[in-house]
Amino acid sequence: MIENARSLNIAASFILIAGIAYILGPLYLTLSTASQSYEFILRNGLAWLPGDQLFSNMARVFAETHIPIQMLNSLAVAFGDALATCILSFLSAYAIVYFRVRWAGAAFALILATIMLPIEIRVITTYQVASNVFSPLNALLDVTGLNELIAAYFGAPVKLEWSVLNTHLGLIAPLVAHGTGTFLFRQFFLTLPKDLFKAARMDGAGPIRFLLDILLPLSRPSFAALFVLTFLSGWTQYLWPLVAASTSDMQTAVVGLARLVPDAEGEVPDFPMIMAATIIVSIIPLAMIALLQRYLVQGLVLTEK
Amino acid sequence: ANIEFWYGNTGVVETAIQAQCSAFNAAQTEHHITCVGQGSYEVSMQKAIAAFRAKNHPVLIQFFDAGTLDLMLSDAVVPVQEVLPDVKWESYIAGARAYYETSGGKLFAQPYNASTLLFYTNKTELQKAGVTETPTTWEEIIEAARKLKASGHACPFVTDGDTWRVLEQFSARHGLPIASRHNGYDGLDAGYVFNTTFAAKHLQNLVDWRKEGLVRLASDTKAGNFTAAFNAGECAMMENSSGSYTASAKAFEGKYELTVGMAPMYKGYERHNTLVGGASIYIMKGHDKAEIEGAKAFLDFVRRPEQQMAFTSATGYVPVTSDVMDAIAKSGEANTPKYATAAVGIGSMNEPRTPDTRGIRLGFYVQFRQVFMEETQKAFAGGQTMQAALDNAKKRGDELLRRFEQTYKGVKLH
Amino acid sequence: MMSESSLFSHRWLPLLLVAPLMLLIVLFFYAPIFQAFYWSFFLERPFGGGSMFVGWDNFIRVISDPEFWEAGWRTIIFMVTGSTLAVAIPLILAVAADRKIAMSLPARNVLVWPKGVAGASIGVVFAFLFNPFAGVLAPLNSIFPGIWAPGIDGTDAFITLIAAHVWGGIPFNFVILLAGLQSIPRSMHQAAAMDGAGPWRRILDVQLPLIMPQLFLTLVLEFTESVTSAFALIDTITKGGPGGSTTLLVYKIYTDGFSGYDLSGASTQTAILMVFVVLLTAAQFVFLGRRVSYDR
Amino acid sequence: MTAIDMAIRAAAANITLSGVTKAYDADTTVIPPMDVELGAGEFTVVLGPSGCGKSTLLQMIAGLERVSGGAIAFGDREVQDLEPKHRGCAMVFQNYALYPHMSVFDNIAYSLKVSGMAKAERIERVGAVAKMLGLSDYLARKPGQLSGGQRQRVAIGRAIVREPGVLLFDEPLSNLDAQLRHDMRVELAELHRRIGATTVFVTHDQVEAMTLADRILILNKGRIEQFDTPKAIYHHPASVFVAKFIGAPPMNILPVTGDGAVLRLADGQVVAAARLTGAYQLGIRPEDILLDAKADGHKLTSTLRFREDLGSHAVLAAELAGSVVRIATPFGADVSDHGQLSLHFPDSRLHLFDPASGRAIPSAFGAN
Amino acid sequence: MTAIDMAIRAAAANITLSGVTKAYDADTTVIPPMDVELGAGEFTVVLGPSGCGKSTLLQMIAGLERVSGGAIAFGDREVQDLEPKHRGCAMVFQNYALYPHMSVFDNIAYSLKVSGMAKAERIERVGAVAKMLGLSDYLARKPGQLSGGQRQRVAIGRAIVREPGVLLFDEPLSNLDAQLRHDMRVELAELHRRIGATTVFVTHDQVEAMTLADRILILNKGRIEQFDTPKAIYHHPASVFVAKFIGAPPMNILPVTGDGAVLRLADGQVVAAARLTGAYQLGIRPEDILLDAKADGHKLTSTLRFREDLGSHAVLAAELAGSVVRIATPFGADVSDHGQLSLHFPDSRLHLFDPASGRAIPSAFGAN
Ligand SMILES: Nc1ncnc2c1ncn2[C@@H]1O[C@H](COP(=O)(O)OP(=O)(O)OP(=O)(O)O)[C@@H](O)[C@H]1O
Ligand SMILES: Nc1ncnc2c1ncn2[C@@H]1O[C@H](COP(=O)(O)OP(=O)(O)OP(=O)(O)O)[C@@H](O)[C@H]1O
Ligand SMILES: O=P(O)(O)OC[C@H](O)CO
Ligand SMILES: [Mg+2]
Ligand SMILES: [Mg+2]
Fold this sequence. Notes:
Chain A: Keywords: Cell inner membrane, Cell membrane, Membrane, Transmembrane, Transmembrane helix, Transport. The complex is a heteropentamer, with one copy of chain A, one copy of chain B, one copy of chain C and two copies of chain D. By secondary structure, chain B is an alpha/beta fold.
């Protein structure tokens, strides 16, 4: 366009530079500190300038901490969370949008409500459930009096027990119980031409074929965007894995990382090693962002209706 | 049997615990212990609570001093002395016993990583400022602090104002109660009294000294951490747990000279014992005989003098049985830095005691510690006077006590 | 929406399709919430064993506790300032990145990075960044001693938290808002240019009004996100201090429940917070959502 | 004639709607009870303004919408409760609704694949269809790489590959530009001539309707206004609605009053002799109005307002008795701008409508 | 005539393009050097196939695209380096690009507001424009609540409220359905007659071009094929491209060979007498072909393939010398299907083109 947008472009450049600096500042500090020695930190606190200890600090992370192994847990949790979220959200959004069922609105509302209350608020009781996933069922049987009947007939009431604590399943499942994915897919489905659905029906495709042959291939960008977002949030989860995993070989890297900051007052945290570990722990998600960044914008364009 | 032990420590201590566990597993074939770090005492306890409700709790769990009453009334643990009647429990030093024993004199938990409050100085810096004698009273500390300040030292004395340090240990060694009913030993109907004792004056002093620039809080230091500030030489004196000795010694190596002694008194007050800190190990209910056997074996193992000595030398935590003191004496290393805290720590805990200095047996005490910190920090920041802060803390603390009383209505105090 | 009757009319299949997610949500969302509500009417012993029905006592206790109100008030302040900034700053960045300038490309990549760095691990860095002696504001402190003291001064600690929160909130909001800006048709800019509106003016008159749906979406999500993100940051940066000045309700619930063993009190607060968040979100929909026009 | 053509021709069946109604929700009936029979192999165009229920009707035939009442039969087979895939009809959508992620081949073959046809047979069938539609060279492309016309052919290929007896189109040309639209129309007509499937074609474009239909079904608010051949509809519109809807520019409609002897316009000028009394609507097509008529009929005086010259012919707009009348003059006759015009309405070209119901009054002036 | 009309008429200026070129990137020139002058107050339609550079040309005039070379002048004022807002021209966009969040009033008033006009004056100006466009009752509505026709009027209102000397339209009718399109066209013509702004109107619809333009500029791949009145373009197309582009159905083009005496079709039939030798392209419009000509001219024998009946006239497609020839017969003459047709091409209606360049060869058969 022929117009003098120079003032705006200059301002925009400055804003972006400031934004980038704001983002990179803490990351730079992480890097510079990670490349100093513990002794340096003891004397100076964190470092403004990089040193030469980066690799030895990283080597210590590998040698002295569980973080490399815990990264496998993180990978399992983030991947499992992302995959399960993508698949389950996809399926439920599919049921809500493409089936004539009276409860679709209610189901969607029930799913969407989960967006409002993060796991941090309900962590205590969630832990209770995770420690025995049958506890709600047991309680239900008790309250309804069914258990008395059962006890009368079979001699003992039903008391099922299954703890998912300290398992990958238990780390993942409560994270998946979340509505964002369903919301995203629903929005996306609503933007698809309706005739596509009708055409497939005319072609004789039933619900499963339509799902597999038409909807799934078309949802790839949304799938990718949701996958990346969920993967990242799964990877960076803190409170739930902290609580739900009790052994260090089940814990995720972020929890392991936080654990490097000692609880007792007796010590100055080994910040160089912690920062080196931070870098190691962030490598996978950062690589993921760098690779899949374009899908993020692409897959999130939620053109309303 | 295969058994589990949950603990809360991290860092150096965690390493030492894991070493002990491996040693135990290597030493015999009958049992196998898995020692699980939970990241902190709090998380460890909360998980134990949930795990107990779900009936998949460990046999052994370590917990810190502040939670003693909560566990005693929980009906989730068995007194160790009942499970292990044959152990020579008398060999545990009185200071450690008092904190964890029932009214009937039976130990409820086996003291494990025991600590107590000590006083640390950077002798090099003190001498630079012309202080040749290591101070032992608050009056001397303040005098030294003024000298340090005059000589340009920015941070003469440092503390974090932690409840354990500024209230519990202070009150105990000055023979002051924190709460009525002998700090709760006599019943759940106790109420807080610290806002009326000399402790209130001491806390007000801290506020004034901080204003004067003689005392710094953790957040006033460059490192944002008072231990780090002391270790880095930024601050010249601090009050801290014996558990921090190893780290300080390591940091000072080759740069500064470190002294460690008993925590300071006010002149005119008779010295009483300091309380045992750190944590102890409980046996949880609901396990079969084989598992209890394993637990017993482990408890016996960590009680062994050589194990305690190794733990002490690795962490700075204090040994708690008299036979270990003998062993240390025999080892010929008694005066080396390795065991520097052992003698002074035990000595401090063994000072004369009164019914008010046995320990703390108050409900929801962990939460009270936070309340106390919150209120006093406001006073340090100038948001309210120290007296108002303490009155507030008492009020909120009493509410906790009343709720605890209500929660455990009808439960007998051991 | 499609017409009802042109949809698949299977009976069991849709149930089967939502069942897995629904099961998880019922188990790990509704059951815990129900449990929290349940506990809020009881005095619950931490290790179980005795639990006493106390009616509304817990609610009365919580409501008459000034600490609760203070934490609630702080939560609101954090939600409002935190989410406003966490939307406004990405908005400004997105408007800038939407222009065809050299910086736009690297910005689009770098600005997403924080999403990959856990709040729990970056908290330490922020604590240092705002350290009164060594951090970015240290020079200020050497001129006016004590002006910046997050370890003592609650407001300063609060600001530190918000800065860290905004840092972590940039990526998601940036991406959504940028996507919104990019879907504005070119002809809309051209029309405004013909009308004599320069590029600055177009930001206000054209771009902002047209990304209202995205702004609304980010605001709503950000409100709940601020609750979540706050936890990890408080836990690593301030621990709720100094003097409780950064104890938001989530953190208070966590500490009351986890370190105070006050399951009943924590559950009661959880229940109240839930009602509050739900009401707040509903209010957003009513007051903001109504003004959002989806016309393009 | 290829094998596919023959198969489709054989499958073609007549479509009978008996009392079919549709209401999307309780209070608004989109289609009141409708009875109609579309002949086997016939090309029916459903024409009507936007929102009149054309798509709804089509989708009920296709099985994409449930009927609220009544029955639909293909031949003797009642189909209203069958799933789309069991009805044996195929559909071409407005924007073609091609699967964007599939190649042309896969798009066409998809219904065969779903029905479980063996691969070899699929390739053969798709090959035959593609050849017939001139798509053989494009089978590997994705829809995004095709021109509008090619896309339409793919959509048609997808529809006919299953050899449906009934072929349905929902405004398949409305997204194209004029040029392409014209070409597609011709292609469609040829295709139908060849394969002879019973075809229902929905549009709101009258040129499409006129050129494609065997019969046109004109819908207005869900009701059938007229169902007849294009010629009959053009020359004998059954109502004012049809008269105004068909023809561009549309039929002129003027209010007239009969005094038992002649019909007069609002300003008193006499249009025609007729033994009618009372108020009527008089209709005449623009191309039926004669200029400067030498005939001895009634002359009407009007004022020229403006003219549109379309090359092949011009359209004049003239003011007559307070209304605007459009006149189509054959092949660019020269008329001076803004002057007086003398018009003649031949009796045989006049249409008379009841002003209340809008229905035509037949044979008012004898046959035409 | 209102005050706004007068102001715009006064501002109307001629537009001169001198050697204007445009290349979006180095290797592809969208517009090769172009020289053209559009008269003050003239209504110019730019017509051409998709992608030929119509929008590009318009946007260069508007200032939304930079020229790659050459100069644009409004009157004596060189404008090619001015920002859009300083050029004094206004534009109506394809999808109108109304601000969806602003009321009709605010949409129209926006440019005035930007220019800092006082509120009272704004209300007055917008009121006048709205009245002129019949929008007075809709000023408070949002664009989403308007019909297509109303939206267009808002877009026009927004354009003319600033009293621009130059009014630009980029395919403003292409999103409308046939009916509405027709009405809008008439409104536009009236509007231009009234306000007389220099108008450039881009379209690829020839009916629009024919009915609206004072002169039509026909573009082909960025080059001007012809720039003349609609009548001249229709009756004297300057090239095969123009001949085929204008007229529906388009002009028939047949290869002929001259032997110095007559022109013959590919199958040897004689079309016309002409003293020409060599190969040519012969053009004749469908409506110019006579059926069963009584005239003594050359008779051509052809076979009828099919017919499209459009009510007002019919189009026959006949095979002649291996090509398909379309014939428009006036007002539904009855011709039996699929029979032999005898055709006559009147000399005066023939067009001759150079087969290599495609340019018209003038006066080959005297005037017509
Ligand atoms: N799913 C639906 N739910 C409710 N009403 C509907 C639905 N689909 C269509 N309608 C209504 O039914 C009427 C007929 O719609 P239909 O789509 O059949 O019209 P149409 O003739 O195809 O129009 P167009 O030419 O615009 O495509 C309209 O008034 C429309 O608003
Ligand atoms: N911004 C651009 N960058 C590069 N090429 C462009 C750009 N805009 C248009 N073009 C190219 O310039 C040529 C002319 O485009 P233009 O939009 O002027 O065509 P048009 O005649 O308006 O076509 P249509 O009728 O489809 O609108 C096309 O080949 C197009 O691909
Ligand atoms: O720091 P520690 O381990 O000595 O423990 C100190 C107090 O006992 C904590 O309650
Ligand atoms: Mg329709
Ligand atoms: Mg264009």
